[in-house]
Write a structure and sequence with these properties.
single chain, 225 residues, mainly alpha, Rna Polymerase Sigma Factor, Chain: A, Arc Repressor Mutant, subunit A, 2 domains, two-stranded antiparallel sheet, globular
């Protein structure tokens, strides 16, 4: 697997809509749902469930847990529909619900703990480390060894690093949309992505060497048979 970059996403977008178009539609659907249109909320769920699932899985690891938690986030969203303010961008509002749902699960599972003060940059608020449950291998990364090494390394990143990499590379969101979803400036998005990619490369390098060595040993063993 090559280095992560903006030019080579880890996973293709499931749909063909541009980010801004989806944001507008999602906000319209939510406003309609607030006024009692259940079909609008069904449309909203269908449009965003894959993106919600992928983001949840980047935090919790297990596909089964991610599916359950993303569904729970949509249920919470529907129950809180009266608190949604018409005209407010929906995606950041929903992302906060999804994040809180996943983090609540991680806390209850005793898998979430604050990062050390020394690991934070001067501009950043507190971050979190997630213990256990490496994410499932994702189709689209060549080779079983590389898949295993990638997710092993990804699981070592902090919650915020996982989040921003998932938004950019799993969902292929533009910088502007990530900025809106996370309610941070685009410059901060670029800075966080730069540092998250650098940390991912650092943890991946020895893991890929390890998996490569294991694969070579297996090949040599097969050749001797």
């Amino acid at each position: 697997m090559g280095a992560i970059s903006d030019e080579v996403p880890l996973k293709g977008r499931a749909g063909g809509e541009y980010p801004d178009e989806m944001e507008v539609r999602a906000s319209q659907w939510m406003s309609q749902a607030k006024r009692g249109d259940s079909e609008a909320f069904d449309q909203l769920t269908r449009a965003l469930r894959q993106r919600a699932f992928l983001t949840a899985r980047s935090w919790v690891g297990s596909s089964e847990d991610a599916l359950e938690l993303s569904q729970e986030a949509f249920l919470k969203t529907y129950r809180a529909r009266d608190t949604y303010r018409d005209g407010e961008p929906f995606l950041p509002w929903f992302h906060r619900i999804l994040r809180n749902t996943c983090f609540s699960f991680l806390r209850q599972s005793k898998r979430l703990r604050p990062t050390s003060l020394s690991s934070r940059s001067a501009e950043d608020e507190p971050d979190w480390e997630i213990e256990g449950e490496e994410p499932d291998p994702e189709a689209g990364i060549a080779g079983e060894e590389e898949k295993r090494a990638f997710w092993k390394g990804f699981a070592r990143l902090s919650a915020r690093d996982r989040e921003i990499l998932a938004l950019r590379h799993f969902q292929e969101l533009a910088y502007a949309e990530i900025a809106r979803v996370l309610a941070i400036p685009e410059g901060t998005v670029m800075s966080r992505l730069f540092h998250a990619r650098a940390r991912l490369r650092t943890v991946l390098a020895p893991l890929f060497d390890e998996e490569s060595g294991t694969a070579d040993a297996k090949a040599a063993k097969e050749a001797r048979r």
